[in-house]
Amino acid sequence: MGHGGPGDLLPSGPEGCWATASCDQLVRELLQRMEESIQPHAQSNPSILLAMNLLGADIESPTYKSLLQNIKEEVVRKAQKAMTSGQVAQHILALLSSCQDPWQVPAPEEPIDLIPILQQKMHEEITHNVISWYNRSLDILTLCVVKEHDRGAAVALAKELLSPDSHLDVDTCAMAVLALVCENNTAPYQEHLIQWALGNVTNGLLDEQEKGKGVIGNLSSMGLAIQALESSRKFYAPRRWDHAQAFSVVQTYEQEYTQPMAIARVLPGLVGKSYLNAAALVPSAGDTWHSNPEPPRPHGDHAPAPFSVGAFQLPTLPLSSPTGPLTVQYSITNTLKNYFHYSTSVCVPPGSRLLQVLKVARHEKPHIFSFKTNQTHLGPFVVSIHGLAGSDNDRTYWQFFSCWSPLQQGVGTYRPKNWEHIQAVFSTY
Ligand code: B12
Fold this sequence. Notes:
By secondary structure, the chain is of the alpha+beta class. The protein has 14 helices and eight strands. The strands form two sheets. It has a five-stranded mixed sheet, covered by helices on one side. A three-stranded antiparallel sheet has the order 3-4-5, covered by helices on one side. Residues 84, 86-87, 90, 132, 134-135, 138, 169, 171-172, 217-218, 220-221, 224, 259, 262, 311-312, 376-382, 392, 397-400, 406-411, 413, 429 line the site of cobalamin.
């Protein structure tokens, strides 16, 4: 196993927005919102457990205990057969942050060792080219945190970040920064390539912030971006990060942060923590795992501070509050496999989500607008429309647009406006 001490993984001098009373209030509200979303019998979300631990949640609370228990059971049931490498990685980070040993998760027959499962899945997914750069980064980060570095994978990630043909989104860049900061801090060779990539990608995130007047990507990606920029200051020095501006964006749009997943990503950054801190409880060689340890606490003597990440598009049009029903134009287009294109107009109650539009269209013309969804931690993901399903092997999916702007929320949260034209286009990624 050979785990070393965790201190070398941690960013130097994390700040967060702790210092101000308004931030403290923000963190509390978001934390409460996230905790209230936890339902005892729903699918358990490891990102929420991780955020609770990074914020120093009350480990004696029934909510915390049942979430941890569910996550342990889920990992036993699903890790080997029914999880992607990224999902295994998320569970490992969550368990580590709860001081649970991922090398030996208690199971009815014999304990499960999650580390080789992650390594094997990551390699299989890379071999079959069915892994995203986001998941690769998450896997590399997790392996680094448990001191089972995959140097080859880290170098490949650095090369991708430096490639002029690479167009990675903000979330992926931020996850890649966390992975490479971890690698750079713990393993000295190849550091030039990794440091060069870190310089490039962190400057790219700062450029995004300047372009977005404080918003780095969108409200959903702010959380990981804040974590990444907090952890990597030396790679963009002497340039400075205007973290106050980023925090004030979160504060301004606090009401938009309703999705538990988005909140779980933004909270750690608000208190100066990142996923790198999940390592804080990996014991040094010779130490033992505690069965009921104290999770990491926020700085100082403060109580848990609420911080939230929103996953939502900033309103670009004035938000009207129509009193009557909405008319939404909805079209589906596939030009990748054969061809089809259909359009319709549907009427939905005011305030409806896009999912309602899809349902009404299906109800009215079931042979044309049939669709299927998979429930995920982010809500419903549209898997197929008109019998045509996206595929990880072909890297295809149904992408949603408002007119020609890609939506930055899913069908379960996006609220179309009156007369908006929503397009679902079969696309590649
Ligand atoms: C990779 C990725 C994709 C890939 C996923 C396929 C794959 N094999 O990797 C593709 C390109 C298909 C995709 C599609 C979309 N995505 Co996307 N995606 C991501 C990204 C970068 C990483 C997700 C991940 O791998 N997580 C780690 C794994 C271990 O966790 P997981 O639970 O198994 O992840 C699965 C789900 O996240 C799901 N998924 C991915 N995107 C979305 C979006 C929605 C709304 C839902 C319900 C599920 C979902 O696919 C993942 C892999 O199976 C995230 C960024 C982030 N920070 O999460 C954005 C992100 C989740 N996506 C987002 C969006 C908006 C979309 C789209 C709606 C974009 C569009 N205009 O159409 C579509 C979904 C449309 C639909 N059909 O329902 C937003 C969601 C924001 C929100 N608050 O709802 C995010 C947060 C990016 C952002 N900052 O805006 N996405």
